[in-house]
Design goal:
The complex is a heterodimer. In chain A, the strands form 2 sheets. In chain A, strands 1, 3, 4, 7, 8 and 9 form a 6-stranded mixed sheet that branches. A 3-stranded antiparallel sheet of chain A has the order 2-6-5, with no helix packed on it. In chain A, strand 3 and strand 4 form a beta hairpin. Chain A is built from no helices and 9 strands. Chain A has strands at about 10, 20-25, 35-40, 45-50, 65-70, 70-75, 85-95, 100, 105-110. The radius of gyration of chain A is 13 Å and the shape is globular. Chain A starts with 8 loop residues before the first strand and ends with a strand. By secondary structure, chain A is mainly β. Helices cover about 0% and strands about 45% of the residues of chain A. By secondary structure, chain B is mainly β. Chain B is globular. The chains are: A mainly beta, B mainly beta. The interface of A and B includes residues 89, 97 and 103 of A.
Amino acid sequence: QSALTQPASVSGSPGQAITISCTGTSSDVGRYKFVSWYQQHPGKAPKLMIYDVTERPAGVSNRFSGSKTGNTASLTISGLQPEDEADYYCCSYAGSGTFVFGGGTKLTVL
Amino acid sequence: EVQLVESGGDVVRPGGSLRLSCAASGFSFDDYGLSWVRQVPGKGLEWVSGINWNGGRTFYADSVKGRFTISRDNAKNSLFLQMNSLRAEDTALYHCVRVRFSYGNPTTFDYWGQGTLVTVSS
């Protein structure tokens, strides 16, 4: 159950688009379509932003989108806004009822 | 409104035990699986344990297998985590999380509680 690999930090200016990668293995990200992304602001609980690789929960802005190629999933945020500044975590189902998270990426909106 | 409220966190000595609880409201409790996910303050998330809708299936991370036990009481809309043989590395904020299932497997954590802090220290 090794953690998924995410960049420690990414940054972008308001209005720009950024992409956060999440690399796993053929036993988790590469095997299942159950990749999800969570946004966490300081002192707050994580919030679901993307599930099943590409799906957005009701109420989440369509500026957030997800994709996957092979063992790497990605979260793209377009039209960056100041309130997008937060930590982002990817997560993948890893079989037998278990999950693995990424180490987290700190997004800074310049 | 979905609410998950954890309790039971405390300071405990290495080797000690603790029981966490999570009170759920705002949804049909026995329609969903649940999990515990922990987070060392300032660090990342780690999935700890999960349980299906009726408690018939339970799942554990290797790091806690044999020491932690997850359970639920659907009559009381409550989730529990019995933590035994606690270690310093178990120190974290423990979140109670609602889980979506798909084709019989847990897939997504869609609502999170604020967490309860467990500190293991001598």
